[in-house]
Amino acid sequence: MKVFVFFVAIAVAAWQCQGDDHGVNFQVFPLRMKSGLGGHYIPEISCESWRLGVETHNIIEFSGVPKDCIGYIGNYLVGDQYRSDSKTVCREAYLYVKTLNISNKDAWVFDIDETALCNLPYYADQGFGAEPYNSTAFDEWVFRGVAPPLPESLKLYKKLVSLGIKIVFITGRPLSQLDVTASNLKKAGYLKWDKLITKDPSYHGKTAVIYKSNERRKLEEQGYNIIGNIGDQWSDILGTNVGGRTFKLPDPMYYVS
Amino acid sequence: MKVFVFFVAIAVAAWQCQGDDHGVNFQVFPLRMKSGLGGHYIPEISCESWRLGVETHNIIEFSGVPKDCIGYIGNYLVGDQYRSDSKTVCREAYLYVKTLNISNKDAWVFDIDETALCNLPYYADQGFGAEPYNSTAFDEWVFRGVAPPLPESLKLYKKLVSLGIKIVFITGRPLSQLDVTASNLKKAGYLKWDKLITKDPSYHGKTAVIYKSNERRKLEEQGYNIIGNIGDQWSDILGTNVGGRTFKLPDPMYYVS
């Protein structure tokens, strides 16, 4: 394979770095979808590049999935790649944990929606992020308390628990959803935790970064040592008191600042 | 398309969130390469997920491209997607800049290798990151001074210059490579800049995060207002004084801490 790559490279690397003024190669750039439905053309942006841009925090504060990418994102979320991408993140988290000497003060912070629990059965009916956020409909879904786990997150959770690591859930869900969230977590297989922190009304109008940073600071003041922190939003893992290492799970559906 | 996605979703979203103990679906997870050579199986990890893990800073301090992913990464780098992914990042950077009122103190920080300049003609001969870093061979390549520009980065550079934004290059290259780097930049189309900062020997043994943070702090002490900062390594954009917004260009070949 090395040899093959070498020859490919000699042939192509030269023009790969060149601009549009250097021949035909970049006339194919970058507007053909390589995934999703039909491989049709999209002006301005490739859906795969859009998703990478979201996951790398280059594309921020987006209001929803671009209309032209609905099919691509839907197929991603119901296909193998979303699971594979999640598995890779959780695997790295576990490889990191195995390098540590765990103490009884060590804690791991989990976000809930699209991190511990999977709302795909709800979002599947919302165009996988294409529809504007509907708080009424989402609350109805939450109060059903039937969200399944994200399986790779649940596997990580079980490994962390077995190592004696304290589990803390910090969610943007309100206090009014605390009980149903706790029962949903148990039903999904998250059987125990140290704390389940919901968003207090005092944070109304504050960003998730501010809310979650402040709650993590309080945890550390209480003596917890946050060794890790995992979420699907950058706002779960940016800010202060982020923990020894942070892990970003994929979520191309929505953005929470 | 919405309707299609809806039906796909109903059929699949239910099991998408379920674990390995729920039937056959996850027996295909996640080990088939969807890209790269031959779509053969790889234990433990999909190369596409590995690349996403690198770009999202979930996978850190890796010593090279996994052997099983050499073909996949090589094809990515010489194919459309690398260009498309770079274009999307630079496009977001420009969309951000257009929201600002530019003053004559505003500066944009560029990294050089795999950001302003493209070393693919060199790395193509090194298995695209599969071979261990060879400083002698890389220095020989650098001193040739013939690295082409990354075309999307050059387009962004030209737009920033046209807006009167000061350009500062901060590179991990040493002072001994300052002259050849300056001439290479000009040859590649980067015709002017305010500062070109190379890594001083006093930073020997220090990480790129420390070196680049300290140089950015000095820039701000000199009165520059860093409105943006773009690099291919997370160490280009993490740390302090990172700028108004940071942008991460793709680079699955190597990791600089």
TrEMBL record, chains A, B:
GO molecular function: acid phosphatase activity; nutrient reservoir activity
Keywords on record: Glycoprotein, Signal, Storage protein
Domain of life: Eukaryota
Keyword set includes Glycoprotein: yes
Signal peptide feature range: 1-19
Recorded family membership: Belongs to the APS1/VSP family.
Matches recorded under PANTHER family: ACID PHOSPHATASE-LIKE PROTEIN, VEGETATIVE STORAGE PROTEIN 1-RELATED
Record function comment: May function as somatic storage protein during early seedling development.
Name of this chain's protein: Stem 28 kDa glycoprotein
